[in-house]
TrEMBL record:
Residues 105-215 form the Prepilin type IV endopeptidase peptidase domain. It comes from Nocardioides aquiterrae. The chain crosses the membrane at residues 99-116, 123-141, 153-171, 178-197, 203-223, 235-257. InterPro entries: Prepilin_IV_endopep_pep (IPR000045), Prepilin_pept_A24_N (IPR010627), Prepilin_peptidase/N-MTase (IPR050882). It is found in: Cell membrane. Keywords: Cell membrane, Membrane, Transmembrane, Transmembrane helix. This is A24 family peptidase. Belongs to the peptidase A24 family. It is a multi-pass membrane protein.
Amino acid sequence: MTPVLLTLAGLLGLLVGSFLNVVIHRVPAGLSLVSPGSACPACAHPVRPYDNVPVLSWLALHGRCRDCAAPISARYPLVELATGVLFVVVAWRFGGTPYAAAGLVVAAAGVALFMIDLDHRRLPFAITGAMAIGAVLALGIDVVRHGAGPVPVALAAAATWLAVYGGIWLVTAGRGMGLGDVALAPVLGLVLGWLGWGPALVGLGAGFVVGAVVGVALIAAGSAGAKSRVPHGPFLLTGAALGMFGGGPLASAYLALVGLG
């Protein structure tokens, strides 16, 4: 992947990140993504096109509305930057392949789901469904171009993720996690399983490890109690990212450590 294409991937990620800010705000509220246009929540003045350039407009405005000087949260440019970085990493890791398209779909939808779960403790099925459709279409193109070799492992990995998350949901009667996590799990399992069992299993386990570490840290800091409910979606998505980008080497290193590699 050339520097020019990586730059284009980053720019695309910034633009997608700008749209994701709209998704994050409007989807949980049941609002249209198309209309009305973006406006300042304080004074309701429509945002001018030149004030809607990802990251740069926020910097040029010093994080304030041009019309009423109300502060604009830094999370907007951070979401754009995070999406841009993820797009660059996906493009660098997977190049110009159909799987890269699936990775970009997962990255974009994942950012939206991550933030919505933090804000509202829910993972909208509409976004998970869009992720599933986009990923399956991209992987379908991969099958046409390169054959169906990855399909059996990918389907088995999706079933494994669904069994684990669905089992936890059933055993805990929905207290351990929500149906949104259960619906998202097989989509991530399918995409990671396309890369093999290593990424799929590392991604599956990493979500629980990250969640446990963060939970212990929050309890130690006094920010949460032992019975506090913390949204699991961000950990699920973080684990999937670890599996996608480093699951293969991590799995190989573990197998070598236990003498099976």
